[in-house]
Structures are given as C-alpha cells and as structure tokens.
C-alpha cells in the first residue's frame, strides 16, 4: 500500500491562500471539512440531561489555534474612545465585583452540514451548543471605569488567536454595538461552571454575550477598543453574515434563533446512531432556547402529530429550558421531533431556511426510533 | 427549499440493524462517519505543548451514549473465579490505597480516515490521543482482596454503556489476561488530572491500562469478572482486531504502536489548516509514545532529510515524551515530519500499514508549511 495522506494533501494544494473557499456544494464531505470536524467538537445530545454542560461536552469552535497564555504576564487593554485607557492584570480583574450568568451558547454554523447545498466550513450536524455558568466582571463596569466618550458606537474585542481566513491574516476580532455592550449580563469571564476557564474556552479571560451566537463571545481576550465607526474586521464584515449568494453583502448574524433538541431515547447503534427502545412508557426530554425572547412553548412531533411538552422552570437569562413529555411507545418505526416557540412568536421551521454561509439553521430535529 | 435531513436519513434507512457495516471504501466520507466525528472528539495538535491534556482537549470515543450515573447508589461488583465476591461503593474505594499514573491513551482507530481504502467507522484524522494523570485504586489490590482462583485466565470489565454494534446488543465489555490485570500500574481511576472524572471519561470509575490502546480502558465500570476461559464478547472477538479481510479471524489489538506527532508551527488557515510561518529560527516540538517500550529516538524530517530531535525527560510510565528540534525556516514550501523509534526497535512507517478495521495506523505525520 502506498502513502495515502493524499486526500488531505491534494485538497490543500488546490486551495491557495488568498482565494475564497469553494461555494456551497451538493457533493460529498471534503477532507478539509473532516479536519475541522476532528478539531472542533459538539455536545453529545445525551448531555442535555444536565442543566449545565461540563468542558469536553460543551461545544467548542476554534478558528485558529488555541493560544497557550501565561496568565501571570497577560494583561487586558481597554482603550479607544474612552476617557482613560486601562491595562488590567488577572489579579486586578479578580478584585472587581463579579457576576455569574447561566448562558446557552450555540455556534452560528450549527446544523450547517444538513443544508443542501452545503456551505463548506465547519460541518456541524445538530449539536454545536452547550450551557454553562460563566463568572467574571461585568463588561459595563469596566467600560464605566474607562469612561466611554459620547462619540462611541461600538466596542471591538480582540483575542490572542491568530491565523488566516479568506486570505486575510488576522487576530480573531468581533464588535458589539454600545447598547449591547452595556447590558448588565455581558461578562468578561474567568470562570466556567465554578472552575478556571479551560484552555479551549478562552483561558484566562473571555467575553460572554448571552443571547448572541457564539462568535460574539471572543475567547482569549486581549484588548477591548471603543470605536466611533462600525468595525469592518473580517469576522464582522465578511464572515457571520446572512447572505443569499457570494455577491450579497448580507446582514450580520447576531442573536440565537429559537431552537430545541431532544435527548434521543433508547439505545443507539454505534455506527448509524439509530435508536432502539422497548415498548411502553418513556419520558421524552430535551432543551429549548432562544436569544430573542423567552421560550414559551415546545411541541413534540410523534409521527407528525404535535403534542405540547411540559416546560420546566427556566435556569434564567438566556440559558436553555428543559422540556419533557411522557410517551407510550408502541412497537414499530417512529419519527420524533421537537419544535420550540419564543416570546417573539418565532417558531422553528420544518424546512431549511438556507443561506450562503449556512448560518443559524434552526430546522426541526428528527429522531428515528425502532420500538421493539 | 425542502427538508434536507435526507442525507442522514437515507443512509440510516439503508443500513438495517443486524448487518455488518459496509467494508472499506475509496468513496467519500459518509453521513454516518460525519455523525460519529461530531459526537467524538480528538485532541487539537497544539495541546501537545502541555505535558497533560485537560478534559475537552483529551480525545474521547464513546461507542454508545454517555451514561448518567448517580455515584451515591453506584456499586462496583467483583466476582467470578474469586474466593469472595465484592460489592464496593465509591466511598469504600476512596478508603483503599490510591496510586496516580501518567498515561498516554490513544484510540486504536486513530489515523483511520487517512487509510485507503478507508474502513467505515469513527473517521479519526491524526489526533485521537491525550495524556492525563489518573488516580485510583490499583486493580491488583482489589483482585488480591477478592482472591483470584488458580483457574483464572482473564478478567472481564463491563461498563454501564449499552447499545447495538454489528447487530449485537451489548454493554461495552473487554477483557485483559490475568498477567496484565496484575500489573502494578493498572488502575481503577476515579480522578483525572486531580479532579473528579468528567462524565465523558467514565464517571464515577473507569479502568486505565497504561500502554494499551484506549478500547481496553473500560469507562463507566460496573463489574469485574474473573473468568476461566477466553472472553468472546463483541468488542474482544469481533471489534478491535487486526484483520486482512472480513473473513480473516485476525489477531487482537493490544498495545499502542510507537508514534509521534508535531505541534504544527506558525499560524493556520481556518479551512485548510495550511501553516504559514515567518522565516528564521523556530523550535519544532511534539510528543512521542509507545506502549511496547520506551521511546528511544525521534527523527524530524525536513523536506525528506532526517535529523535527530532532542528528547526531554520522560513523564514516566507509558506517558508521551516531549521532543524538540531548533529549525531555521527558509522561505518557500516545506514538508515537516516526525518519526519515533522505541526500545523494541520498532519505528513508525512512512507508508500505511493497512488492515480491514483501520487499527493502529501509526504512519508518519506530514505537516506542510509556507515560510514567507
């Protein structure tokens, strides 16, 4: 047998830096997508049995490499359109008042691999989500310390992670409008679920913006700059946009669309993940969330007939809400679904809502079960 | 646009339970492989900068679902060919003498997706590996308490994780020969890197067998049975074997073959992961390990010319060993490789050593870098 890293190599050789990636495809998964899938990880659906998702179960997307930061020499810089620039050590940040917020984070590209044609990027299936308690200093408090000038429009957050995307050499950076940055629940977090941030979640400090897709919550945060004009960095202006086509300037992705997922009942087949379940009563359960308003209802589809699930007490803020539905499983093949609605009246679509980058696919999940 | 979960559904519908999975293929990645890749996760290569791999960076393979175990009611059963059966609570196990061992675990299927033809299973690329300090009770101590009868041949370990594989309904179970089970460094671990086991690593108790591929280290351990005949469970007798073809009974996979990986230098392109590096001095680094003997050398290939790397002090036991090599990067395109040798004289192959299940692929890694 001969050397067969050729699959990956040939793709790499054919994609010179500086060119846009290939557009959406109906073709099979590429070696590049597989590489991304191996690097990044999603949340096994059974993790939704827990209110809180521990590291390793919570989804992670890293655009570039995970930086290896020495927290003892690290400083956060706050500058731009402020009365006084600040340079803060971790020790200084730990002396500031802290808040803890429960937050469901979801990748804006979640569900991308199920779209047709399929945009070429991280090929999430269903599970790029997770919920954690994030502890740290309210961003508004630090902006108050620095003194935001009246000319300020946005706040730009830059991480330590560097790389190339779409031909542009960059450090990962995103902005927030001032009104969002001043929300009481936006936190510069140094702790996840009561423990020091893991490396892959932004150690030693990250932004967490409840209600917005995960790209907003910049990890490995190094600088905060208040700016007087809209930020035009790659991750704001090119990536993370709702586009109809490559030529469409599009609109920015921001808040998380209403969505729900089910813990697949029964036991799985290793390869197919098809579920097998004993006939009789079973408690279906899952979680629902929205960044646009409280979850007000979840319906469970059983072979196409919809029944209202019971909603449990919310965890608070923009964290997911548990739902349950008792079901008496009868022998045969069944298709189970869940569909959430939020306070704005938005409901998950039954069919895909396609866009060029594969953003915010909140199409209803389907779980096939064999009851024997 | 129409509902497009059809990719996954069609594959599922065409693979009835109880049939063997498709054989190796030269075709594109299937939706089933992508689903597995989304569920399981590997170690981003930059995590090799650390001696120890934290949860979320350490690889995880789960055959079925991650069980949700209440440790307060959980018990470990020890029985079979022993003088006295034992039923032990977590509280009881914590009173027993504990050891801590540094262990590099690697999935036996690591590198599978690079094989041609490609066996259909979890499509690992390069990174299904990780190193942790595992703390718990020596297995030999508990076997001593139970009193192994002279007729004993193997010890069977059964986890709480249940599912279907290859048409066989099962709880995950593997055996070890008595002589391996009695090794001083084989541990029933309740702690990983000084913290309670995370759910995905086997909470509340798992087996850790240093030097063997990861399938041996049964997670969510519920029972230990000493047996007087070779164990013929699915994961021993069907899965995890070196086979030439479907009809070949094959030989069992056991110890980890010598292998090394490099932290890719420079910065990545998001999609291709191609590396870009500034000209000048750079310290190449990575890790090397073997379950068959100590790592005795690592050579670094730079455009096909091999240079010896410097080996750092071992962490001990069967944990990986850090290597470094200073390199002066000259402008242009380069291919970097690393190739380890162990005390048995085994060296990583430059070409694939194919087998039917895609086991133990320790072919040399290649990293393409552009120096500008």
TrEMBL record, chains A, B:
Residue span, Oxidoreductase molybdopterin-binding domain: 63-234
Alphabetized InterPro entries for the sequence: Ig_E-set, MoCF_OxRdtse_dimer, Mopterin_OxRdtase_euk, OxRdtase_Mopterin-bd_dom, OxRdtase_Mopterin-bd_sf
Entry coiled-coil feature ranges: none
Domain Moybdenum cofactor oxidoreductase dimerisation: 256-371
Biased composition (Polar residues): 1-12
Cofactor(s), names only, from the UniProt record: Mo-molybdopterin
Region: Disordered, residue numbers: 1-29
Origin superkingdom: Bacteria
GO biological process: sulfur compound metabolic process
GO molecular function, one term: heme binding
Biased composition (Low complexity): 13-29
Alphabetic keyword roster: Metal-binding, Molybdenum, Oxidoreductase
Protein name: Mo-co oxidoreductase dimerisation domain-containing protein
Species for this entry: Pseudarthrobacter equi
